[in-house]
Amino acid sequence: MSSYRDAGVDIDAGEELVRRIKPWCAATRTENVLGGIGLFGGFFRAHFPDMTDPVLVSSVDGVGTKLRVAREAGVHHTVGQDLVNHCVDDILACGARPLFFLDYFATGHLDVDVAAQVIHGFTVACQENGCALIGGETAEMPGFYATGDYDMSGTIVGVVDRARVVDGRSIQAGDQLLALPSTGLHTNGYSLARRALFELGGLGLDHRMDDGRSLADALLAVHRSYLHPVQALLNQVEVRGISHITGGGMVGNTRRILPQGLDLALDRQAWEWPEIFRLVQRCGAVPDEEMERAFNLGIGMVLILAPGEVERAEALLAGMGERPLRLGHVVKA
Amino acid sequence: MSSYRDAGVDIDAGEELVRRIKPWCAATRTENVLGGIGLFGGFFRAHFPDMTDPVLVSSVDGVGTKLRVAREAGVHHTVGQDLVNHCVDDILACGARPLFFLDYFATGHLDVDVAAQVIHGFTVACQENGCALIGGETAEMPGFYATGDYDMSGTIVGVVDRARVVDGRSIQAGDQLLALPSTGLHTNGYSLARRALFELGGLGLDHRMDDGRSLADALLAVHRSYLHPVQALLNQVEVRGISHITGGGMVGNTRRILPQGLDLALDRQAWEWPEIFRLVQRCGAVPDEEMERAFNLGIGMVLILAPGEVERAEALLAGMGERPLRLGHVVKA
Questions:
Q1: Among A269, A333, B203, B310, fewest CB within 10 Å belongs to which?
Q2: Domain B11-164 architecture
């Protein structure tokens, strides 16, 4: 006699998880969310009275093999925050503010405590970004994930008025690059970093860096959301392009928003690679070119501004506690 | 000297995949999609001139361990269709029609041919449902998935006018259940089915069923979309509740849309379990109760209608080639 539980799927654990996360999800509700949890879909009123031609902007992401670091460190709420913030930053790069988020969490055997930690992380970041968690799927897939492993993805939907979409089209030669620092690797380059640090470098998660943090803390530093400073900037300064620095690195991600015929002239002396990146490079003997392609190297978001806007933008950002960096400018290719 | 490729991540393969799928994705574009692929987000105009109070309805899903059957059979486009149709049916159960879809595809080592087949499946189903594929994330996660394995999730966003949301609130005792047949297991119960058929039953994917199909074909039958018949019905008949039969089975899914104080009175003689379910039960000696909880048992969607609407609904559905079944009715609990 065989049952779903014998086959490795525990419907009761799934129900226990839903009970546990329900109040956290409810706390992320915003005024346009309708209905409760437990129906077949999440409901959100498409009610944007302050916009002339509202455009929904959406993005889907994962956090990659940063999950392996989370598992090894036994810390699961930060990767939940990473995922939401990554999504927020992606649509922010289009000028959009977040409306709602949905998650997918898959594992071999559902550990309710671990899943609850991850999902708690989603709800913390959702609240910080004024974004409602309105749907999720938890999949128990015996045989697909090693014990203790899980994967997840998140989808965000935001909105921007059409006239205020940021898409890089108005970028011109001479425009300036202003960058906001990252908090660490964010969610990119972890396969390479883990190989360099742990396999080749022989370091452990408890290795102390010069700045006093453990390697675990440095690697799990939360992918930050740039929503609040960048939204404030968008309200007061003409921002011609925004690049969220993810896989492909600073150059790869920033180049793809430039109109044809333009290129970047970077001032590579403008910033120093944070310690974690220097450590990865040293342990793995990773060439500069590869480092630039795989990592953000300390730059999380790049704003492209008309030259006359830079000082005002810097002052505004500094007033919000940011430390913007001048990275270079746009040139004819 | 270490590189991202040495660490198991092949950025070039990812770019090759994007090149390959681009025209398929472009073919799913609908009139409200803005911009192209390659920016940080997908753009969709929130322009619903035929609605008074448009509500966005969203859902996220996976296809579970049906993926293992796909891998073993070497057939990857059907699971892509499964995922989209599953999402379409979830929001259809709220009365919504689909607008756009985003996918997440994760694997240990990116096989461009396999990923392209899966994504082609997404685009086929998106086109059938008038739904634009406007975003996706492909994650190469060395060490997370066994060779040849992959996981995926999909998120759909649709829309319904608020006055036409189907949420079960108006269901009353005496209302009738009208069901639409499933095409097979759809996307639920695969861990139990595989254990029963392959481990306990000793069958192979090439086992011939009485209906002439191989077990592979029966297990990979595409989770159908009910969009076209049910949308037509929603335009002409008052539908009080819709239940998409997924994990939890027919009773579990239909009960959760009933107002408090009501229950289901099922006519279990109204339909026969299709062969694939009888085979699973026989091979695995699975109790009836467990079968009902894990599988749709031949019922893909249940519509709840006022008694006076049933005949008209049956005629309408039959006119579109459907074979609706009367399953029973709603009673006081």
A1: A269
A2: 2-Layer Sandwich (3.30)
